[in-house]
From TrEMBL:
<feature type="transmembrane region" description="Helical">
    <location>
        <begin position="341"/>
        <end position="363"/>
    </location>
</feature>
<feature type="transmembrane region" description="Helical">
    <location>
        <begin position="135"/>
        <end position="153"/>
    </location>
</feature>
<feature type="transmembrane region" description="Helical">
    <location>
        <begin position="375"/>
        <end position="394"/>
    </location>
</feature>
<feature type="transmembrane region" description="Helical">
    <location>
        <begin position="248"/>
        <end position="265"/>
    </location>
</feature>
<feature type="transmembrane region" description="Helical">
    <location>
        <begin position="21"/>
        <end position="42"/>
    </location>
</feature>
<feature type="transmembrane region" description="Helical">
    <location>
        <begin position="165"/>
        <end position="187"/>
    </location>
</feature>
<dbReference type="Pfam" id="PF01943">
    <property type="entry name" value="Polysacc_synt"/>
</dbReference>
<protein>
    <submittedName>
        <fullName>Lipopolysaccharide biosynthesis protein</fullName>
    </submittedName>
</protein>
<keyword id="KW-0472">Membrane</keyword>
<dbReference type="InterPro" id="IPR050833">
    <property type="entry name" value="Poly_Biosynth_Transport"/>
</dbReference>
<keyword id="KW-0812">Transmembrane</keyword>
<feature type="transmembrane region" description="Helical">
    <location>
        <begin position="101"/>
        <end position="123"/>
    </location>
</feature>
<feature type="transmembrane region" description="Helical">
    <location>
        <begin position="301"/>
        <end position="321"/>
    </location>
</feature>
<feature type="transmembrane region" description="Helical">
    <location>
        <begin position="62"/>
        <end position="81"/>
    </location>
</feature>
<dbReference type="InterPro" id="IPR002797">
    <property type="entry name" value="Polysacc_synth"/>
</dbReference>
<feature type="transmembrane region" description="Helical">
    <location>
        <begin position="406"/>
        <end position="425"/>
    </location>
</feature>
<feature type="transmembrane region" description="Helical">
    <location>
        <begin position="465"/>
        <end position="494"/>
    </location>
</feature>
Length: 517
């Protein structure tokens, strides 16, 4: 894999715009994310211990709604930043581009929040399947606003390849939410306060990101001679509003559909559990469903850590892939992606195997044996979350070549299969049936994305088949899955071409130590 230039020189060296190399940025991001997600794991354990399973289920539904509605109601507008910031920066129209995206984001946010504040009871039924106190819905609205601001600042820093700052923001948000929410619960606070703590943590994390943008914005607009190719203008290129809309609308529409369908896909199993779990002699159907969602949430705590890492890796890579694409380095795009997919499959499968082996202790000691159903479903959840992480990274190829319309098509196929399989398996096998349905539907999505990538010019090979099937070994034996992942890593390392590409992406001193063959 080729590595993006770590610095961009300008006439004034002291004010030169600097971008993080993919290697350094990815290492820092992984380190900070692993640490942050470790703290998030502690937060998840604390939530399960400090709240009953009904409130854990309510938090799962509230957070799912926040992550669902945020990209959907924004119409995919800020989602164009990672792909097109470099495009408009090279054409010297960065400020105009970002200002118009910010205006569109603010307009959509204002309309949605006013609607939510006007009819809170309706939103209470949508989110929790029953009316809630208005203060909780107002808290959810505040969390939506906080998440929008956080995502905008983070995406803009990421699109300028300020990966270390993005990792700092993510770490601050995760740690801040953990400290604030756990302190709130320990002090006797209620569930509504947890939602407000999430909003506060998002706003706090925006402070360093805003400072970074203010410091480097002027130098970011300087284009060096090395960055200019024969197809790019040497003077600022004017883009009318409608010209920019026509350029961005197909991408934003596909992204909006992907977010809508993907988040519906993410929430569908939980809503199906709410509707299909029957009442008991002592518990109503609504409370029984929320308790089952709480069990489901506990089994996904560790798998969702992997998925969040995959989302982080995919988000970091897209601006670098876009920069390669804009610079006409087509081969580098595919090489970066192939290596990233293989590494994600190997590392996530090995990590999942360790998690399964530690599962009895985690659920028996940390969770006090209260979530036995979560322990049972965890291997399948680890498998489909690894697949979801692979899809999150792999779909960057389609977004880079501006064929993202095929991503929502694959997501729609997965959503349809998830609904049908849940309706069939949930009444028969209960919570276990929901997990089987979700795993199968994730396999449908992955297959669809792989076929779309191949159809758009991605080179299919044995590596793609191996990295797709490797997570399935978690369903047989975690020890065997771990050993197989290590064996595949060793085979890849002993391939000289692959090893050389990997070594190009580590610091020079470490590269010399690793180049021992």
């Amino acid at each position: 894999m080729s590595t993006a230039n770590s610095t961009t020189e300008s006439a004034s060296p002291s004010k030169a715009f600097r971008v993080d190399s993919l290697a350094i940025g990815m290492v820092v991001m992984l380190a900070m994310t692993v640490l942050g997600r470790g703290i998030g794991f502690i937060r998840g354990m604390a939530f399960c211990r400090l709240m009953d399973d009904t409130d854990v289920g309510r938090w799962s539904m509230a957070f799912g709604f926040i992550t669902l509605i945020t990209p959907v109601m924004l119409l995919g507008i800020p989602g164009v930043l990672p792909r097109f910031t470099e495009h408009f920066r090279r054409r010297r129209s960065l400020t105009t581009f970002v200002r118009r995206i910010a205006i569109g984001t603010l307009a959509c946010t204002s309309i949605f929040v006013m609607t939510m504040l006007t009819i809170p009871q309706w939103f209470g039924w949508i989110v929790f399947l029953q009316p809630q106190d208005n203060s909780l819905i107002y808290g959810v609205a505040g969390a939506v606003v906080g998440m929008i601001l956080y995502n905008f600042v983070s995406d803009l820093n990421g699109s300028l390849r300020q990966v270390r700052m993005v990792s700092c923001m993510q770490f601050m948000q995760g740690v801040g939410f953990t400290l604030l929410s756990v302190a709130w619960l320990l002090s006797g606070g209620d569930f509504t306060g947890v939602v407000w703590m999430f909003a506060a943590s998002c706003l706090l994390a925006c402070i360093p990101g805003g400072w970074s943008l203010a410091r480097s914005w002027s130098s970011a607009q300087d284009i060096t001679d090395l960055e200019i190719n024969s197809t790019e203008p040497e003077t600022p290129q004017a883009f009318g509003v409608w010209d920019m809309i026509r350029r961005l609308a197909p991408y934003a529409t596909a992204l909006w559909l992907m977010n809508l369908i993907g988040n519906l896909f993410e929430l569908s199993d939980r809503y199906m559990i709410l509707h299909f779990i029957p009442a008991t002699e002592t518990v109503s159907a609504e409370l029984a469903g929320q308790a089952a969602v709480g069990q489901y949430h506990s089994g996904r705590i560790i798998p969702m850590l992997l998925l969040s890492l995959g989302t982080m890796i995919g988000g970091v890579m897209l601006p670098y892939l876009s920069a390669d694409w804009e610079a006409k380095r087509i081969r580098a795009v595919q090489d970066r992606l192939r290596d990233a997919l293989l590494i994600v499959s190997i590392v996530f499968t090995a990590g999942s195997a360790v998690a399964i082996l530690m599962g009895p202790w985690i659920f028996g000691v940390l969770l006090q044996g209260r979530y036995t159903d979560g322990l049972t479903l965890m291997p399948m959840a680890l498998c489909f979350c690894t697949w979801a992480a692979l899809v999150t990274v792999g779909q960057n190829y389609l977004w880079t070549v501006e064929k993202g319309k095929w991503v929502p098509v694959a997501m729609a196929a997965g959503l349809t299969s998830n609904l049908l399989l849940n309706a069939w398996l949930l009444p028969i096998y209960g919570l276990q049936g929901a997990v089987i349905a979700t795993m199968c539907s994730h396999g449908v999505v992955m297959t669809g994305v792989w076929l779309a990538m191949i159809g758009c010019g991605y080179r299919a090979d044995l590596t793609m088949l191996v990295l797709s099937l490797l997570p399935l070994t978690l369903l047989t034996s975690p020890a065997a899955a771990f050993c197989l992942a290590i064996l595949i890593a060793a085979v890849a390392w002993y391939d000289e071409t692959t090893r050389n590409r990997w070594l190009q992406n580590v610091p020079e001193r470490l590269r010399e130590r690793l180049s021992w063959t």
